[in-house]
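Blinded run. Sample ID left blank on purpose so nobody reads anything into the name before looking at the predicted structure. Input follows.
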Amino acid sequence: MNREILKYPFYLIMHPFNGYWEMKYETSKKMNLILSFAILLLLVLTNVLGSQYSGFLVHIYNPAEMNSLMEVTYVIVPVLFWCVANWSLTTLMDGEGKFVEIFTSTCFALIPMVIINFPWIWLSNVISLQETTFYYFCNSFAVLWSMYLLFIGNMTVHQFTPSKTIGTIILTIVAIGFMAFICLLFFSLVQQMISFVTVIYQEITMRN
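Blinded prediction complete.
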């Protein structure tokens, strides 16, 4: 992986229109996919480290009670839900983006949340109460920057107009809510079935 490839994600977040256009039509799909997994892994790492090592002024949870698996889930699941929901909808709306392109454009949009939030994991341990405003401002700025990149990426990948992109994003969010509801319903049903089987098993063993 040469230096130009490593510079490309930073080029994309500073020049999103050109960057996403090159990602779709000019750069290597395989290399984009590798970079996407690397970015997603870095975001997972940032999320886990932030939950464990952020300063007590900005982190209200007890690090001793942190579940690393759940912290990973909080990153992976929303990204997968977004990609699946967006791909399902845009397929019906004549979108030109493939699932791999949707995934890579989504992961590249997460870069600001890594490069801005990661240093604050350590800085949050040395700031005062008055300086926490800068911490929350930087976190909010990272989220807004990522949302902007996600919008540009979605528009470029599918070759949609801005208005159609906004409508697609809204429908994608609705679809994610529906998917989450179905998943919760499924897991609740599985849990009830396991409880039912367990009760029957206990009844049989006690009678014998």
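Unblinding after everyone has recorded impressions. The first helix runs from residue 3 to 14.
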